[in-house]
Amino acid sequence: MILAISGSLRRDSLNSAALRAAARAAARSALEVVIDTSPAILPPFSPDLESEPPEPVLRFRRACECAEAILLAVPEYAFGIPGAFKNALDWTLGSGSLYRKPIALLSVAPPGRGAHVTQALDAVFTGLDGDVAHYVVPVVAADRGADGEVRDPRIVEALQAVVTELWAHARSRSAETQTPLRSVRHT
User: CATH top-level class for 2-185?
Assistant: First the structure.
């Protein structure tokens, strides 16, 4: 199972819409992508709560631990990681629930934008020995249908390719040999 997490809490988020489209596309290939919305409900991180974390934190950590791979779509806010998403990451550090996971960072921003959040996430995942690949699949409002969902067939095909590659990589990894994911750009 691939766990998909949006870094945006916006109801009309392009990042979240792209993850939903990726999940629908993956289902056509019999791949399971589960979207987790925990960043919206997690309490503020406190090291004092590490020994007995609140139940939402435990559920989020378990979801991360059970996932074979992680698909993230995170917007850039104030040249960095959005606060609620950074809070979610902070809750996983002590538990190691994301340690050494294959992680795909999906950027839906137009080329040339979002570099700061990518750098910040790379720094976090370096500390977790993350197996990170970057994918750029630009999504704009015109790529969405009247229901707000991503419907452009080219975009959906590119998202399906991202999920398929992430899944294949996660399945082929072994404890002895770990070939890093490659980064690609879909336009």
Answer: alpha beta
